[in-house]
Each structure stands twice: as structure tokens, then as C-alpha cells.
Amino acid sequence: MSAVLADPAWRVDAHDDGLLLYAGADLAYLVPDLPRTHVTALVSWFASAARNPAEPGLLPDELAPVVRHLRSLGALRPAVLPTPERPRSLAVAVRVLGAGGTALRDALAAAFPAPAEPGLTLVVRTTATLRELAGLAAELTGPHLLLDLACHHTVSLGPLVVPGGSACLACLAVRTGRRWGDPPPPPEPAVTTAPEFAAALARHAVGRLESGSLALLERVVTVHTDELTSTAETVLPAAGCPVCPALPAGPATLPWEDR
Hints:
Elements: E1 4-6, E2 11-15, E3 18-22, E4 28-32, H1 36-49, H2 64-73, E5 76-78, E6 92-97, H3 102-111, E7 120-125, H4 130-137, E8 144-148, E9 154-161, H5 169-180, H6 190-193, H7 196-210, E10 219-224, E11 229-234
Parallel strand pairs: 6-7, 7-8
Antiparallel strand pairs: 1-5, 2-3, 3-4, 8-9, 9-10, 10-11
Helix pairs in contact: 3-7, 4-5
Protein name: Bacteriocin biosynthesis cyclodehydratase domain-containing protein
């Protein structure tokens, strides 16, 4: 694991029952049953990472799961990533999977002008099945983000996929198919006929990515546009994924462009 920096909004403190991770009253987690020596080591290491890039390899091996948890929460980020103070732009290409009307294509074109050399692909599923989404996963060799509009009144954003370094779209398709099956989407999902919200949400997510956020890495956020409810779920690698086993595993970096 490469060098990381700690988000200054997060704190790591010793607790009677283990290790306390928090960034305010609504973001607090307790890691129980850690030896006191490990708690002390992680508290000191995290404080150092708030000032300068720190190497997770300097910690005991037993703390590797805790470090991964801190990264998934956004409390730790790779030191090479941009920050809100030093953002970098990403050239975004849009790939629509399924039918898409003029309103949708116009909204996406306005949010993401066609680049000469894309660094990120926004995959927009409209009327394609999960099987078709899994088939596309094998073709995408660079970082990509899913905007799923196939559920009629629901906008789903994520996961962000780094091929070979995270769960992929086929993993999502396999897990979703096991749970809900793979019925054909509506011929014209409602969220594609009034696509301004979906396009704006995707543009906001890319802006957060340009500021160094990895909030959508292996994560899906959904918004039901009629009921105004939202959910967030983790996307884990799937044992039956037809794509991931063939990909070379290893570190990957996003092709950032300087502003």
C-alpha cells in the first residue's frame, strides 16, 4: 500500500474498549479488542499522517484491516491524490449503454463535453440488462464510473472502478442479479426523460473525485426521485465475476490533468 495522508477532519483516539475513529457525532466507529500497544501505535501513526505522507507498512500487520477501513471511510487517502485545495481536472468520456433520448444525451453533453483523451469514462446504463453491463466491464481498461438510470424512478451512482484494483461492474451485475434477477429495464425510464438531476449528480461526483474523494470506490449511492429517499451500499468483489480473475492485480493511479 502506497503512502497516505490523513484527512484533518478525522480523529483517531484510544478508548477503553479499543480504538475510536470519528469525524463528528454522526461519523463515529469503534474498533474493539485491539491490544493497547496497537492502539497506541495507530494513534501516533495517524497523527503523523496528518502532517506528512505516512507508510502503512510501518504498522503491525494486524492493523492492516483497520487501515483499509480508514481508507474506505475517507479518513486516509493516497498521498498522490489531489485535495480540495489543489484539485485537478479529469477529462470525462460518456458511454451510454442502452437507448437514450435527446434530452438525456443533451444533458450529458452539457455536463461532460467530449474530450480528446479521456481519463475517466462515465458509463450510463439506460435500457441495457445486467448481463450487458457485465459484458461491457471486460472492455473498459481505464477508470470508470457507473450512472445507472435503468430503474425507472431511481438514479444510482457508482461504483467507481479501477480495473484490477477494485470490484468491477461485472461484480455489481453478478451480486445484483443474484438478489433481484435480471428483468429488462423499462423501455424509457422516467429518470432519462428528465435527466437534469442525474447529469448534475454525476457532475458533482466527478467534481468530488477531482478534489481527491474516493467516496464511490466500491460503493453505490441511490436516490429515488419520487420518494426522495436515498441509500448507500458497498460493492464487494464477486466470487463468480467473469472479469476480475483475468485482470492483473496491482496499484493503479488515475490519469489526473493539472488545471
